[in-house]
């Protein structure tokens, strides 16, 4: 058997980690589902009268969906990421974790498996299901499409009460997909490096770090652009998608770097 | 089993085995408990029991049948007695002599008491 | 089986714990690891298990460097720490999750140990008493059939019957290809169980010798009056407990406490008599 990676051991480890991590995971996902449900229920409940009488014109009550989806999703990912390796901060638990005969790579990859693959996909699924349930319920109040005539005099059908996952997003939104993953990497690392209050400490470090960099960039931009005039050329960087692309690439690079550091710190964790 | 504080453990285990042989709870041609069994029973290191068995084997009190274990031989009882006798003469008798000397107990008194004792206990 | 050479270790730069430490452990023995509080017993065990990184020097366990934490080594080590954690699951679930990592895990043997230790298996592990938990992980560790068993203060928290059970179980646990290391303060618990003594003092291994070598060289006895050749004496009821050079080839019983104190007070005198080097250096 290889000392680096072995599939049997990997799956055995996935099963083993469920015993400890499953509880935290299920609790978190339960709370998250509850919060999503409450938001939907509250917004639908308070507008119940409008829905009855003015059904077609109150779909703005669903405007909370995007921010809720983003904020809650990032919160969920960071929470489970920082708690996955939190046991290593407690001596009594850490010895047992480190002595389990699986390679450090396997231990790390199982961490990624639970926090990234299971974490993110189950969040999407939960959100999707709750949205599906509520929207289906709302659609029951009346017709969800209406026909309008556009400027060219053509008839178009407009669908309101759209499912969250069938909404057309602005193209820039897709560039932000790296965000949960980079946060996962950072909070995994925080969970390994800090011995207690991992979440708070990681969040504060991250915040300070961002503030420092932002100030730096603001300062840099200020000194570079002071007394200059902006010119809109048709160059590469004038396309905002290219800038988003650059940010995404940086994000992916950061993710890989943080994962790398987290793996090394896990490998050399001392008790 | 209670071990006493001063005597080497392997010798105390030897005493224990010899007692069983003399009291005939273990008889000729019986198989002795294995090293491990006796170690577990007495809560001691198996290596210590092994040392005991080695010594008893040297004194021909027990014999090792390869691959089967340790057994009592026809000579076991006789050899135990001669072993015990040596121990008694070397260790216990000097102490005894010391006491009768210090307490000024004469040999005639001793002989008389000895006869009395044998009569009371072994007749 | 375990070789340590020139090990330097410290938790902080100003306070070294081990300096140029050498130690060799062989299979087929139960080693008793003794030392004062803070002498580094637990830390030595962690160095062997690869849970901490030495500053310099070599630690080799079954031919591996333990800090690499390779599965092929980890599956040959059972580490039973003094403080430990068991999850809130039942025994069966715990076994299902963990036993598979130890290729030689023997379930039958595990059940026998659990029975002998009288551990109830119906409740969740986290809800057991401290002593029961301890017996549970000892059983798990022994049933894993690893070549190396490391125990840090295993009898702490065990009641009197459990200690006797523990001794019985350990007596049956030692085999020719196994090496057991037990650190302890409670020498009386393990008196007859260990067959080699490791004594830590002043950043080094002060003594590493099999019990029969110690009793070959030293004689432990009770005396009414001190004689001239006494190496170490402690007052006791009606006389002294003493250590003498064993010039008459007497067979005495090792008194661990007495030896421990003697070595701490006059290391040279004692260790020179027990030619440790013959034993420590691999031949």
TrEMBL record, chain A:
The keyword Manganese does not apply. It comes from the Bacteria. Keywords: Membrane, Transmembrane, Transmembrane helix. The chain crosses the membrane at residues 21-42, 62-87, 108-130, 173-194, 206-222, 242-264. This is ABC-2 family transporter. It comes from Sphingobacterium detergens.
From TrEMBL, chain B:
SUPFAM superfamilies: Winged helix' DNA-binding domain. One of its GO terms (molecular function) is DNA-binding transcription factor activity. Pfam families: GntR. InterPro entries: Tscrpt_reg_HTH_GntR (IPR000524), WH-like_DNA-bd_sf (IPR036388), WH_DNA-bd_sf (IPR036390). Residues 7-75 form the HTH gntR-type domain. Keywords: DNA-binding, Transcription, Transcription regulation. This is DNA-binding transcriptional regulator YhcF (GntR family).
UniProtKB/TrEMBL annotation, chain C:
Keywords: ATP-binding, Nucleotide-binding, Transport. It comes from the Bacteria. CDD domains: ABC_DR_subfamily_A (cd03230). InterPro entries: AAA+_ATPase (IPR003593), ABC_transporter-like_ATP-bd (IPR003439), ABC_Transporter_VariousFunc (IPR051782), P-loop_NTPase (IPR027417). The keyword Phosphoprotein does not apply. Transmembrane segments: none annotated. SMART domains: AAA. Residues 2-227 form the ABC transporter domain. Pfam families: ABC_tran. GO terms for molecular function: ATP binding; ATP hydrolysis activity. PANTHER family: ABC TRANSPORTER ATP-BINDING PROTEIN ALBC-RELATED (PTHR42939:SF1). This is ABC-2 type transport system ATP-binding protein. It comes from Sphingobacterium detergens.
């Amino acid at each position: 058997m290889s000392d680096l990676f072995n599939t049997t051991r990997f799956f055995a480890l996935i099963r083993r980690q469920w015993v400890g991590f499953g509880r935290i995971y299920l609790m978190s996902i339960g709370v998250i589902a509850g919060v999503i449900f409450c938001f939907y229920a509250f917004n639908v409940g308070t507008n119940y009268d409008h829905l009855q009488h003015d059904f077609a014109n109150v779909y703005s009550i669903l405007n909370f969906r995007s921010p809720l989806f983003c904020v809650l999703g990032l919160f969920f990912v960071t929470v489970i990421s920082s708690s996955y390796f939190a046991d290593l901060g407690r001596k009594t638990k850490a010895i047992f974790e480190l002595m389990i005969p699986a390679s450090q790579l396997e231990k790390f990859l199982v961490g990624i498996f639970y926090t990234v693959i299971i974490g993110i996909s189950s969040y999407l699924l939960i959100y999707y299901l709750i949205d599906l349930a509520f929207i289906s319920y709302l659609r029951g109040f009346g017709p969800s499409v209406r026909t309008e005539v556009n400027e060219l005099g053509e008839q178009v059908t407009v669908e309101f009460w759209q499912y969250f996952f069938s909404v057309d997003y602005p193209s820039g939104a897709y560039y932000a997909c790296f965000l949960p993953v980079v946060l996962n990497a950072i909070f995994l690392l925080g969970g390994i490096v800090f011995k207690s209050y991992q979440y708070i400490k990681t969040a504060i470090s991250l915040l300070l770090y961002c503030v420092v960099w932002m100030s730096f960039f603001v300062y840099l931009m200020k000194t570079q652009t002071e007394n200059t005039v902006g010119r809109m050329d048709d160059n590469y960087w004038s396309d905002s998608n290219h800038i988003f692309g650059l940010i995404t690439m940086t994000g992916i690079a950061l993710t890989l770097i943080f994962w790398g550091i987290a793996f090394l710190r896990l490998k050399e964790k001392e008790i | 089993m209670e071990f006493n504080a001063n005597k080497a453990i392997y010798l105390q285990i030897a005493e224990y085995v010899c007692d069983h042989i003399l009291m005939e709870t273990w008889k000729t041609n019986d198989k002795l408990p294995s090293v491990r069994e006796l170690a577990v029973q007495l809560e001691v290191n198996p290596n210590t029991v092994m040392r005991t068995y080695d010594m008893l084997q040297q004194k021909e009190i027990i014999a090792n049948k390869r691959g089967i274990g340790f057994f009592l031989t026809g000579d076991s009882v006789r050899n135990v007695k001669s072993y015990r006798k040596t121990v008694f003469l070397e260790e216990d008798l000097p102490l005894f002599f010391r006491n009768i000397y210090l307490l000024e107990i004469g040999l005639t008194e001793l002989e008389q008491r000895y006869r009395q004792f044998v009569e009371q206990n072994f007749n | 089986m375990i070789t340590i050479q020139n090990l330097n270790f410290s938790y902080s730069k100003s306070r070294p714990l081990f300096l140029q430490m050498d130690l060799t452990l062989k299979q087929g023995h139960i080693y008793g690891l003794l030392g004062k509080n803070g002498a580094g017993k637990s830390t030595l065990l962690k160095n062997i298990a690869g849970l901490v990184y030495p500053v310099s020097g070599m630690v080799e366990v079954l031919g591996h460097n333990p800090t690499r934490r390779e599965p092929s080594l980890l599956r040959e080590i059972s580490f039973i720490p003094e403080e430990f954690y068991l999850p809130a699951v039942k025994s069966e679930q715990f076994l299902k999750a963990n036993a598979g990592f130890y290729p030689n895990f023997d379930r039958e043997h595990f059940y026998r140990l659990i029975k002998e230790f009288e551990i109830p298996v119906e409740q969740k592990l986290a809800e057991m008493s401290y002593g029961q938990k301890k017996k549970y992980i000892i059983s798990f560790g022994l049933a894993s059939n690893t070549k190396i068993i490391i125990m840090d203060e295993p009898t702490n928290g065990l009641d009197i019957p459990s200690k006797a059970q523990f001794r019985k179980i350990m007596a049956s646990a030692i085999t020719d290809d196994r090496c057991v290391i037990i650190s302890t303060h409670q020498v009386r618990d393990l008196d007859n169980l260990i067959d080699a003594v490791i004594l830590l003092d002043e950043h080094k291994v002060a003594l590493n010798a099999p019990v029969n070598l110690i009793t070959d060289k030293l004689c432990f006895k009770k005396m009414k009056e001190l004689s001239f050749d006494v190496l170490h004496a402690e007052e006791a009821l009606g006389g002294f407990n003493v250590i003498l050079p064993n010039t008459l080839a007497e067979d005495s019983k090792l008194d661990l406490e007495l030896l421990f104190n003697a070595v701490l007070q006059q290391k040279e005198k004692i260790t020179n008599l027990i030619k440790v080097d013959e034993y420590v250096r691999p031949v």
